[in-house]
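Thread: "does anyone have the structure for this chain?"

Original post by V.I.:
We have the sequence but no experimental structure in hand. Need at least a predicted one for the grant figures.
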Amino acid sequence: MTTSASWSSTPEPRPESDAVRTLWDRQQINDALLRYCRGIDRCDEELILSAYHPDARDDHGVFVGTAAEFSAWAVAGLLRVVQSTTHELSNVMIEVNGDTARAESLFVGSHVQDTDEGITVNQFHGRYLDVLTFRNDRWAIEERRTVYDWTESRSTQRTHPADDPRFAHGSRSRTDPVYVGWERWSGASNGVGR
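Reply from O.Q.:
Generated one for you, tokens below.
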């Protein structure tokens, strides 16, 4: 079974060649940013925290505190109020300077609320401004500030039933197909997903 930790491990030591190290650093930083997105969408605190250093700070506007406090607060709120989320990154700009980096990432966070009154999609459009550092053999966020550029809310309806058997269904736990089931649909002979 795939665990959060297997997604967050550093695949190999940091390269010594300057050119290769710069590419490696940028990829490790990008992977950290994406682990955060997967973690928040799967409500996986361990995976969220793998994107941060243990002493990291997060300023999400509505919440300011440590990464651990933010992760617990966000997951509890999402599980209580929202049925589904997707966080997408684009236009990721990374500037590496030795063991410190800055990253600006545009994000769209979609939060689906399914209530008796209907389905509402709340979208948040903005940017994550991150300071990342290479410590303890890994790149991770040291400080994050979330900048909101605009938001929208719209009522909608399902185009397919929630339990439509033709589709794999995501979950906000470690029962999601990204954690289990790779072997069932991929053959897993290549080791991907383990």
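V.I.: this helps a lot. The helical segments are 4-8, 18-42, 45-50, 67-81, 182-186.
O.Q.: and The radius of gyration is 18 Å.
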